[in-house]
Task: inverse folding
């Protein structure tokens, strides 16, 4: 899986991925066909949480940009100096953009990092929460 | 070791952590990406010439009301073994886990000092 042909042949479906995983059991973690860094997104009624595996990065080296409709995670992984016998860890600049559809309370956005896991909490703004409206029937 | 091999007891997928091996003047460095592994969950075994590293990720379980929208990674068990060369000083191996990266420093053993043999004239 050094050369990824998939973009030429249309979208990769989840079934293709399963098939590919069976087809190449020796596929290393650094060569998996996902974008870097891997992202998990979850939602509660109050907030959207984006979790991201970023080993070896300090929170001060990560650039987070929140726009109207997206959250961009940017940074650069540097490599150590020396003679490399094996290199599997990805290096260089990376960027991942997560689409955010709900209005976010910008003041309360929080990001923290532990053991190489970045967690960004995007609290939904009050206006976007569903409200119960009682209708009086005349 | 097959990467997709399942760990029977916990049902966690076993993965080989992405690894760099670098040689510098003061020895060898092994860097392994092990995001989500805490210091307590990391096991390094040194047996004769073999060094085995394993660790389980401990991502917080999602709350009941939390709905997963998009998932690209999850809990797993990292496992990888290496055979050490005889030029490594096994007693001075040093391990540091920082920000989810394990750094193993394998210093080179002191070389046997070259000895000069004086030849006496008889």
Result:
């Amino acid at each position: 899986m050094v050369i990824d042909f998939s973009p030429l042949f249309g979208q990769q479906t989840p079934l293709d991925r399963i098939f590919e995983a069976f087809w190449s059991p020796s596929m290393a973690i650094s060569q998996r066909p996902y974008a870097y860094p891997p992202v998990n997104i979850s939602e509660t009624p109050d907030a959207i949480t984006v979790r991201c595996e970023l080993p070896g990065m300090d929170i001060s080296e990560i650039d987070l940009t929140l726009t109207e409709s997206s959250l961009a995670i940017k940074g650069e992984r540097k490599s150590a100096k020396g003679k490399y016998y094996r290199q599997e860890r990805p290096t260089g600049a990376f960027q991942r953009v997560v689409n955010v559809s709900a209005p976010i309370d910008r003041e309360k956005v929080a990001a923290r990092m532990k053991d190489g896991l970045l967690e960004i909490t995007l609290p939904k703004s009050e206006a976007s929460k569903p409200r119960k409206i009682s209708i009086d029937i005349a | 070791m097959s990467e997709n091999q399942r760990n029977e007891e916990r049902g966690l997928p076993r993965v080989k952590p992405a690894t760099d091996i670098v040689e510098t003047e003061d020895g060898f460095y092994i860097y392994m990406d092990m995001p989500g592994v805490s210091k307590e969950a990391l096991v390094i075994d040194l047996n004769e010439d073999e060094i085995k590293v394993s660790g389980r990720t401990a991502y917080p379980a999602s709350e009941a009301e939390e709905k997963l929208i998009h998932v690209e990674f999850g809990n797993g068990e990292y496992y990888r073994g290496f055979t050490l060369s005889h030029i490594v000083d096994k007693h001075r191996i040093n391990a540091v886990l920082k920000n989810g990266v394990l750094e193993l420093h394998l210093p080179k053993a002191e070389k046997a000092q070259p000895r000069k043999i004086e030849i006496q004239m008889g």
